[in-house]
Write a structure and sequence with these properties.
45% of the residues lie in helices and 12% in strands. The chain starts with 9 loop residues before the first helix and ends in a 7-residue tail after the last strand. Strands 18-19-17-16-20 form a five-stranded mixed sheet, with helices on one face. A five-stranded antiparallel sheet has the order 24-23-22-21-25. A four-stranded antiparallel sheet has the order 12-13-15-14. The longest helix is centred in the middle third of the chain and has 25 residues. It is α+β, with helices and mostly antiparallel strands. The protein is built from 34 helices and 25 strands. Helix 20 packs across helix 26 and helix 25 runs antiparallel to helix 26.
Amino acid sequence: MGTTTPPRTLAEALRARGDESLAGLLRARPDLLNPVPNDITQLATRAGTRASVVRALEHLDRFALQTAEALAVAPDPAPYDTLLSLLTGDGLDDGEQRDDVGAAVTAALPGALATLREQALVWGEDERLRLVRTARELLAPSPQHPSPTGLGPTVAEATAGMSPGRLQEILTATGLPATHDPVSAVAALSALFTDRTRMAELLDTAPVEALSVLDRLVWGPPYGEVTPNPTPPVKWLRDRGLLLPVSTRTVVLPREAALHLRAGRAHRVPEPVPPVVAATAERDPQAVDRAAAGQAFTALSTVEELLKLWNGGGPAILRAGGLSVRELKRVANALEATEPIAAFWVELAYAAGLLASDGETDERYAPTPAYDEWLDLSAQDRWTHLATAWLPATRVPGLVGGQDAKGRALSALGPELDRSAAPDVRHRVLALFTELPPGTAPDPETLLRRLRWERPLRGSTPSAEVTDLRSRLALWTLNESELLGITGRGALSSQARALLDEGEEAAARLLAPLLPEPLDHVLLQADLTAVAPGPLERPLAETLSVLADVESKGGATVYRFTPGSVRRALDAGQAAADLHAFLAAHSRTPVPQPLSYLIDDVARRHGHLRIGAASAYVRCDDEAVLNEILADRRSTGLRLRRLAPTVLASQADPGSLLEALREMGYAPAAESAEGDVLITRTGARRTPPRTPPVPVPEGPPTPDDTLLGAAVRAIRAGDTAATVARKEPPQGTTGARTSDTLPRTTSAETLATVQAAAMTGSAVWIGYVNAEGAASQRVIAPVRVEGGFVTAYDHTADEVRTYPLHRITGVAELAEDGKG
């Protein structure tokens, strides 16, 4: 058996992988699939582009990123032991690096390295580990972008361009043998800084102030400013090469010296183990489920109340899009909530497709037809609809009230609220909830710490991470989960676990027994109020909301009957007899006499006055009533005048006249041009059919197994076509090819070679130009040649295709046994 040759390039390393490993790479980095690479070489090239590498680095956990950062400051290539030493230290420090941390790093490093290899960020055997060049450039130190490790450039990099005379002065000051060869001088200085014993002896002679300077630079940033006349401690360090010049005013601590001072560690604190999410409380799981169910019911009621508020047409849309601050305040007052919470409910209804723009010239928000369908669902199904709309939503209500990059205010339902990271953070927060025992509420601080470990911010400090977007998204997720009933009393509910693990049906099945049953009755009281001891059936609730005003909410809802509310029911087409029958049928207590008198009194006066369009007019068979109106000082602004004994005209429009007379205590009714009373039906304004807003993806979607399998086969086939050995054209033919061009043969030679391949069942290599003029090379096995077309199995596309012969630029036979 022969030995395996180590890969020389990333492409060779990828080519040696199995299909499952290639599929794992494409799954971890789906941006490499758009479009599907033609072969392994193109895949490796794309995997090394800056944009793709940045995306891959941003998806690493903290320890995998620390491993990549250590490789970026290690020699290239680096043995495994060197990498391990950079993460654990050389063991010669004063005990600051604890044994348990070193053991954890030793145990976790193979996994982190496997992750980097799987994502094609690292390749090569353990004896020669290589970080891809783009990642090394991104993580390597420079004055403009210091290394995340806080290390500076090597002695060789920092002394590049330094005069031999200056190098000689440094060697003399450090007691090293003199040499006029710059390469030998740099090597001697590097060897000194990496020799623990000699370096310790050198630092023992350093002034205390010089050691203080090194302490400020050792963990980064390694750059410092100096004056033209530096202090003696700085001059001592500069003379011995412990500070090397970067510019006339900037010096740097070389990497080898910093690693000695750090006891060989690339990071101050390696973090091989993810932080544990601590619990703040452990509660009864059943109590958690009941609390979450109660909040879920409140969420349904709140969304329904919001959309009922806009049932007849909602607020106008701002010119820049979204809801004005004034309208958001109105919503907050109506829902008895703060403005941030009101923004959440508005955005939730929008994400669920229950609310949208009506698309009219005077554009306004209104419920969609889907809202009516949603109302017909059971309570548990309505909740799962809201929850499943919230989980993948990229719109972030928590941003409302803030400012965008240009300093403009962000408004609810505005166009600038999408954040593609929101669904990922939301799912990850809830996944951490599921890892805790039922009824356990996590500590938010430790949860944030865990999230920052899983997706750290490259090059940032822990203090900066506290205010990063992902942390804010996580905190908003905790609040929104409680509002929506995903969590109860800070712990994940059983119905939410079922929704995440099993789907909507399982969640609805668990939630249904915890929701209150709708009631078909109310309790009428003598003080003109009705008490609903629980949620009401929809027809009862809708009729009662027209006939009475909600006075208070809570475990029981209190409705109050007023002349205005009764008139509202009469305006909607109800007769007094209908109202009496409705109350008698749905009250568990006798209908109080004051309520019956109120209904009869309002009904008797309802429609006594009639208002139509003149601009507007008032007519009444009772002249005394019209005289009373004219004499009332409150009617002055209506500019009324008598046209006939029973008719008054006004310059106000009918709607304004109607409202003004109602405020004066009358009960007028609007009438049509034919003199019929106009009935005002409640809330029928709907937008045209609308689809919910589409989430803005953070990157390419994760491909499924079918797509991955097809992509791997296509890449393998293309690689075969690109690397397969081919025969040289026979002597005397016009065929010509090179390794990087398409074959060229005459039409006759192409036809003869393809016909011969079809007869022998062999494969050939062709150059092909499609109808769009795009050239490619393919390996095909011809099956039939007739009518100017060749039908063949295309190994590159892994399917049978038909090619016009006139589009084949040339053909070459494949070599046998891999020999040309």
